[in-house]
Amino acid sequence: MLDPELIRRRIAEALPGAEVEVKDTTGTGDHFEARVVSPDFVGKSMVEQHKLVYAPLGDLLKTGELHALALKTYSPEQWKKLSARSQPS
Amino acid sequence: MTPELKTRFDEEIQKHPVVLYMKGNALFPRCGFSAAALQILQQYGPVYTVDVLADPAVRDAIKEYSSWPTIPQVYVHGKFVGGSDIVRDLEERGELEQLIKAAPGQG
Hints:
The complex is a heterodimer.
Chain A: H1 4-14, E1 19-24, E2 31-37, H2 46-54, H3 58-63, E3 68-74, H4 76-85
Parallel strand pairs in A: 2-3
Antiparallel strand pairs in A: 1-2
Chain B: H1 3-15, E1 18-22, H2 32-42, E2 48-51, H3 56-66, E3 73-76, E4 79-82, H4 84-92, H5 96-101
Parallel strand pairs in B: 1-2
Antiparallel strand pairs in B: 1-3, 3-4
Helix pairs in contact in B: 2-4
């Protein structure tokens, strides 16, 4: 069982200045979903962006303790545009 | 990763336009993420699938080969594209079809 907060903290420490949100999608502590907004993503491909997020979680992915992490990554600019378009009512 | 496996991957991703390293096979996917990636890719033509659960050595080696820690993994025209999230994002942006239909060596 992993705590979403542990995953959130690891990502946030690896990407200073990032906004990180992690959810346990199944309630079983091994499938998670993360949204990461970071200035470090500017000018990088999606593969490079996702690798930056996976990097601090390598050991957990290797052991299978972290079975799945669905990722959404955005640069601050992309996120601003996206959230402006879909304001929650 | 053994040199034999590296050669095998090199050849596999060059020989087939779209290759999916997945858990299970096309008939019986054994992971929701693998199934989702397969379903999206199949809209645009044949997908060559490799079941990584059939051989633990392949499962470990492909992660090393791509420097990508999770399964599924998608290769199009010999290039690593990403995992299930990226395939879904490309599909939503309408870029996946272009990528697959582009002649090998382009882009």
